[in-house]
Amino acid sequence: MNDKPTINYGLEGIYVDESSISKVDGQNGKLWYRGYAIEELARQSNFEEVTYLLLKGRLPSRKEYDDFTKKLKERRELPGDIKDLIRKMAPTAHPMDVMRTAASMLVMFDNDPSNREGDETTEKVISLVAKLPTIAAATGRFREKKDYIPPDNNLGHSANFLYMLTGNKPNEFESKLIDLMFILHAEHSTNASTFSVLVTASTLADIYSATTTGIGTLKGPLHGGADEAALSMMNAIGDPSNTEKYIEEALEGKKRIMGFGHRVYKTYDPRAKIVRSYLEESLTKEPSDEVKRLLQIALIAEKMMIDKLGKTKGIWPNIDFFAGPLYRVLGIDSHLFTPIFVASRMSGWGAHIIEYWQNNKLVRPLEWYTGSLDLPYVPMNNR
Ligand SMILES: CC(C)(COP(=O)(O)OP(=O)(O)OC[C@H]1O[C@@H](n2cnc3c(N)ncnc32)[C@H](O)[C@@H]1OP(=O)(O)O)[C@@H](O)C(=O)NCCC(=O)NCCS
Hints:
single chain, mainly alpha, Citrate Synthase, domain 1, 2 domains, three-stranded antiparallel beta sheet, binds coenzyme A
């Protein structure tokens, strides 16, 4: 027998590729998309421009931006069969299951899904980026037995999503909040879902298969599903005065506090800081009692966790902790948090697929076998 190799469980600490898409500096709590600091993009850019940046590697000129946003708008609408599928599934299935199935069905409306020639992959990514918010919004509407709202091409990408979901045209602040969440979730290097997308893409399966894989991976509460799980914890806490007791007991019971900790960030997630600052700003704009209560709970929990685990174990708030309260400012139901993450992360997934296919290599890691060898086969009747 050979000596057992070092096994990096969860691929922790393993480099799987080179990439120029984003850099996460986990020690210093910094994040850049294509070299631009996330704080700058959150403050000055918008989701359409960020998507262009991720997919093409540079910021667009005015003309490139206009052409790109026009294309996104033209592709927002869904085929009727997909709306029918969503209508059937939405009342009972979790919105992430609806999204995964509807995204998978998009392959039927592409007459050459495996074509990777020229700009074909980028074009397919743009279509997916355009349609996934419509799928998420339709899912939210049909869940509540409301009518489908078609896209409004006078609205920007994420403001239109909010409109298709709620039926109300968002004001400037609401448009900024939803766009912020789209920007902040758009990309995050080789996280679990992006890696899973690349595993599927590495087999040269089509982009719809890769996207479906990504949605399935993002669903889990240790990854994208943490935003919904964190809000559900805040609701279980109920009143801010219960927060300390709840967190103490959860930690004593070795439970994980959702929205804290990260494989790469061992300090405050820079995206969480940005979301937190906008949440504080929303308190100046007549917030609901629910939002005030959630933020109070969040701030008590944040302080406790940083005191108990931040400085000792490097467990700090991540973006998913404050995302829920911010979505509640916009009146978005918690089941739709992760679908919004999908709609946004499609840009990052797409950028990685485009990059990976330039130098494709089938993903095939090894595992160390610990079972038996050469066992005698006993026919079934003799067992
Ligand atoms: C994200 C996450 C999976 C990363 O974890 P990881 O790098 O694999 O680290 P581990 O799971 O090995 O945890 C290391 C230690 O920290 C503890 N820990 C990690 N996250 C914790 C959390 N959110 N609450 C309480 N303890 C936590 C673990 O219990 C473990 O403690 P131990 O050493 O005493 O056994 C983890 O922090 C987590 O489960 N967080 C909650 C889910 C979440 O918010 N996910 C969104 C990420 S953006």
